[in-house]
Structure formats: structure tokens, C-alpha cells
Write a sequence for this structure.
């Protein structure tokens, strides 16, 4: 088990840190895309720092609503009534995702 954890952490093992198999480039790309997504979702930076043109898109993303709700709860002590806009965005994504899954997913 220790060896498996070491491989996950990038220590030793085959294919770690740009070793054989070309894993290093994919890991770098994955990390870059994850950081970009989390940055745009206001996990690291306030979404108000982004240009006005992308604000509606950022505000409509589900993780932005989750992060804003968590910040409101932890930093301002906001209750469910104050978090209604964020909860509405989360609920809308849940409903739309569920309906799309029911419509598009088929066992084969």
C-alpha cells in the first residue's frame, strides 16, 4: 500500500515525473486545466476580479454557487434565506443534469 501511495504522490514507480510512458506532459496539462477551472470558478480568486463580459457565465456555474454559499456560511454566518440565489443555481444544475441523464443515458 505504501508503494501505491508513493506512486500516486509521484515518488518512484514507473511513469512518474516525465518518465517512460509520457505521463509527465499529461499531468502538467491536467494540473494546468484544473487550476484554470478553479480560478475561473472563484475558488482561488474572487469572481469579481474577472471582466464584466464573463461575469454572467461565471455566476451561472455550479461550483461558483457552491463556493459562494460556503463563503457566505463560513464568513458571514448566512442562513438558507440569504443563500437562496446560490441554492437556486445549484438546484437548477441538479435538475437539468438529471433530466439530461434520464434522456440521454441508455444501458446497452
Amino acid at each position: 500500500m505504501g508503494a501505491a501511495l508513493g506512486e500516486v504522490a509521484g515518488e518512484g514507480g514507473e511513469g512518474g515525473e516525465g518518465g517512460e510512458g509520457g505521463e509527465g506532459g499529461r499531468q502538467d496539462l491536467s494540473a494546468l486545466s484544473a487550476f484554470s477551472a478553479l480560478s475561473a470558478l472563484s475558488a482561488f480568486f474572487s469572481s469579481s476580479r474577472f471582466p464584466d463580459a464573463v461575469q454572467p457565465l461565471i455566476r451561472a456555474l455550479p461550483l461558483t454557487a457552491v463556493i459562494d454559499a460556503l463563503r457566505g456560511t463560513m464568513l458571514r454566518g448566512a442562513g438558507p434565506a440569504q443563500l437562496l440565489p446560490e441554492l437556486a443555481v445549484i438546484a437548477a444544475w441538479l435538475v437539468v443534469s438529471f433530466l439530461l441523464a434520464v434522456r440521454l443515458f441508455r444501458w446497452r
